[in-house]
Design goal:
Elements (H helix, E strand, L loop, with lengths): L3 E5 L2 E6 L4 E6 L7 H13 L3 E7 L3 H6 L3 E10 L3 E9 L10 H12 L13 E5 L5 H11 L10 H9 L2 E8 L2 E11 L4 E9 L8 H15 L4 E7 L3 H9 L3 E12 L2 E11 L2
Parallel strand pairs: 3-4, 10-11
Antiparallel strand pairs: 1-2, 2-3, 4-6, 5-6, 7-8, 8-9, 9-10, 11-13, 12-13
Helix pairs in contact: 3-7, 4-5
């Protein structure tokens, strides 16, 4: 069962045993400092080993004083004016340790060398478009094939339909009539930022830069909505995804340690960002 998204005071968090953490997804500044004690209590009551929070720069010191550390920082994250700080508090020293450091550093080294490299096009017979509700059954099947497990229930068509009605636009690439690649733009229209996420390419179609094509198409749509900052939280061990963001001109901004449960185990995640203005 996926972790649940819940309202806490005027803020929103996701928490549960899947990721063994709290994720403070959207903090209402007026909830500080009281919400910090609330989060501690929930973490301790559920024996979670981490709290992960997206925090405005102006509240950074309050979180530091409560035992948080900075893991990433995105310039102008909030309405193009205030930096966003990705902060973490650990309740288990083992979870604080960066695993497989050599692999993570190697992925970053290779990715950063490929900034702005490789042209972007679709082969003949391929079509890229925004996904619609009638596509959700096919979308769910793709996600099921690509991910053994995922932080959100993207393998459920009803979940995909619900998020389409809220703040997420999905984009797909079809080869003839077969859906072969997917991604999503999780928009915060009030804060003018967007998370580029949920990339899934069927195994037979990898190596064709389909993720890069999807990313560029999503950026075009987000610019039309006047969104200013695009970012992503990518698996730190993935050459393909980290290289995709570097090729598209994104900047690396930090690593979230043992942050997200994907494919049955916790993985560290790299934060990438790009200004769309």
């Amino acid at each position: 069962m996926s972790d649940l998204v819940k309202k806490i005071r005027n803020s929103y968090m996701q928490h549960g045993k899947e990721n063994n953490r709290i994720y403070l997804m959207k903090l209402a500044p007026k909830d500080c400092p009281e919400i910090l004690s609330d989060l501690d209590k929930i973490a301790l009551d559920n024996e979670y080993s981490k709290i992960f929070a997206k925090v405005p720069y102006s509240l950074k010191q309050e979180f530091l004083e409560k035992g948080y550390q900075v893991e990433a920082q995105i310039p102008n994250f909030f309405r193009g004016k205030e930096d966003g700080i990705f902060m973490a508090k650990y309740f288990d020293e083992q979870r604080r340790q960066l695993e497989n450091k050599d692999r993570i550093f190697q992925v970053l080294e290779v990715s950063l060398k490929k900034k702005f490299k490789e042209k972007n096009f679709l082969e003949k017979g391929y079509l890229c478009r925004k996904a619609q509700k009638e596509d959700t059954k096919e979308m769910a099947k793709v996600y099921q094939k690509v991910f053994e497990s995922y932080p959100f229930p993207i393998e459920d068509p009803s979940y995909l339909k619900k998020t389409m009605e809220e703040n997420i636009e999905y984009f797909g690439i079809w080869n003839q009539d077969q859906l072969v690649a997917l991604s999503s733009s999780e928009m915060d229209l009030s804060l003018l930022n967007v998370e580029m996420t949920d990339f899934a390419i069927l195994p037979d179609y990898r190596g064709k830069n389909l993720s890069l094509y999807l990313l560029n198409e999503m950026e075009k749509e987000m610019k039309k909505k006047r969104i200013q900052i695009a970012y992503s939280i990518a698996r730190s061990h993935s050459f393909a995804m980290n290289t995709t963001f570097s090729k598209a001109g994104y900047d690396f901004r930090g690593t979230l340690i043992q942050n997200t449960q994907i494919a049955g185990h916790l993985e560290s995640m790299n934060v990438w960002y790009k200004s769309l203005i």
